[in-house]
Amino acid sequence: MVELCIEMQGYTEAVEYAEGSKGQNLIELLSVKDLYAKGEIPDKCAKSCNS
pTM of this prediction? Predict the structure, then answer.
């Protein structure tokens, strides 16, 4: 969809669509209960959370 907007010189619409898509992806990611299904958080992530 973004490509189509750009091809039709609808740059504002392209940006709005891309931003909306990013927001929706973030919401979906945050709603996932089993991000780390076995409860094993990688050390890199755990260290950055504790900093």
Answer: 0.49
